[in-house]
Amino acid sequence: MEEQFIRYLIPAVGLVSGLIGAYVGLQNRLLLAEVRKEIAELENRLIENFNGKYVRHGECQLRELMVHEKLAALSDEMKSKNAAGE
Q: How far apart are alpha carbons 28 and 32 in whole angstroms?
């Protein structure tokens, strides 16, 4: 009787151990998936934040060029008004 009990006990312990291992493995994968998703969301928020605050060098040059053109146009307009008013 005792020998038969041990015959069933050893495979049962192996089966339970395997099931627990599979469950823990699935939980670990789920946790890793959640962490990766949160990291991706954080990365996207950081990128959006950087894109909103910092300007590329080419954009700065273009803005500076446009400001100079507007100032030149205003200067020409003021000169023409002063010349017409004199």
A: 6
